[in-house]
């Protein structure tokens, strides 16, 4: 009788043990990543809620408040964080968000200055660089003078109070028609337009409605008309002081077109 030969049988399935260990470790790794992600979202919601509360108490951007309903609403948290980027002057604002804020300011001013808008002494519109509040010469200045009429000071106070509650810059631009001027006080339209812009800037500084580093003044004489100088009505529209509310980050708010003008302008401070 032949002896039986016992051969050891090598298992072909031992690779499953290593594979199972690898899958278990990989699963644990993704569980940890998920836990970290959920923790970060909770912090974002807490931060956004705090910022919302702070801005509502200051009366800034009431339309911009966001209330994320749960931790998964990451987009709401990002929107709630937007105002802090405006204040810090960082290049994180989208043109759409800037337009939304400026449009809110426009609606508020149109309501506050409804009488002046109705009498056509003030016009408010969105311009290429930002929100433009136009003060017509007929309503604010005597011909050839850079001193605002005394009865217009309440209107200027209202504008200063509204703009002082926002974090945007203010560029004050003086404009004239193309009729030359030569008086003992002003030798040219350049001087008249610059003096009117500077005088309005001085009023805003005296009211202390906004920090001096947010205010600038510029004189453009007759070289940026909004109407034809061929008619009396057109020349009346061109004689104006524009208050341009613009973001501290330079964003082109208009559709593709000519680049914003880069006329020289200077800062107005308490030392001038």
Molecular structure report:
The protein is an alpha+beta fold and 272 residues long. The protein folds into 2 domains: 15-80; 95-267, OmpA-like domain (60s Ribosomal Protein L30, Chain: A, 2-Layer Sandwich), CATH 3.30.1330. The protein is 45% helix and 12% strand. The protein contains 9 helices and 6 strands, in the order αααααββααβαβαββ. It has a 6-stranded mixed sheet. A hairpin with a 4-residue loop joins strand 1 (122-126) and strand 2. Helix 1 (15-58) runs parallel beside helix 2 (74-80). The N and C termini lie far apart (123 Å). The model is unreliable at 60-92 and 255-272 (pLDDT under 50).
Write a brief structural summary:
This protein is of the alpha+beta class and 272 residues long. It has helices at 15-58, 74-80, 82-88, 95-112, 114-118, 137-140, 153-164, 189-207, 232-238, and strands spanning 122-126, 131-136, 169-175, 215-219, 240-246, 266-267.
Segments where pLDDT lies below 50 for 5+ residues? 60-92, 255-272
Helix content: 40-55%
Tally of domains: 2
Give me the strand/helix succession. HHHHHEEHHEHEHEE
Per the CATH scheme, the topology name of the largest domain is 60s Ribosomal Protein L30, Chain: A
Count of helices?
A: 9
The CATH homologous superfamily of the largest domain is termed: OmpA-like domain
Q: For the residues shown, what is the average pLDDT? A: 77
Oligomer: single chain
CATH class of the largest domain: Alpha Beta
Q: Can you list the strand order of the major beta sheet? A: 1-2-5-3-4-6
Instruction: State the CATH architecture of the largest domain.
Output: 2-Layer Sandwich
């Amino acid at each position: 009788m032949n002896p039986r030969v016992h051969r050891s049988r090598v298992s072909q399935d031992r690779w499953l043990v290593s594979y199972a260990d690898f899958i278990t470790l990989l699963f644990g790794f993704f569980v940890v990543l998920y836990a970290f992600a959920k923790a970060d979202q909770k912090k974002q919601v807490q931060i956004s809620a705090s910022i919302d509360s702070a801005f509502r108490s200051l009366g800034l951007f009431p339309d911009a408040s966001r209330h994320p309903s749960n931790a998964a609403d990451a987009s709401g948290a990002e929107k709630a964080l937007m105002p802090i980027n405006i204040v810090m002057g960082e290049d994180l604002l989208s043109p759409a968000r800037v337009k939304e804020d400026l449009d809110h300011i426009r609606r508020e001013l149109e309501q506050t200055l409804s009488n002046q808008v109705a009498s056509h002494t003030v016009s408010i519109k969105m311009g290429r660089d930002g929100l433009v509040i136009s003060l017509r010469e007929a309503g604010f200045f005597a011909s050839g003078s850079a001193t605002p009429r005394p009865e217009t000071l309440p209107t200027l106070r209202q504008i200063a109070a509204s703009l002082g509650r926002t974090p945007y810059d203010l560029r004050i631009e003086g404009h004239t028609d193309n009729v030359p001027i030569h008086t003992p006080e002003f030798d040219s339209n350049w001087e008249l337009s610059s003096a009117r812009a500077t005088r309005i800037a001085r009023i805003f500084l005296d009211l202390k409605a906004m920090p001096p580093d947010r205010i600038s003044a510029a004189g453009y004489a007759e070289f940026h008309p909004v109407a034809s100088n061929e008619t009396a009505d057109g020349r009346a529209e061109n004689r104006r002081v524009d208050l341009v509310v613009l973001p501290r980050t330079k964003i082109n708010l208009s559709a593709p077109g000519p680049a914003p003008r880069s006329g020289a302008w200077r800062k107005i401070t308490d030392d001038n």
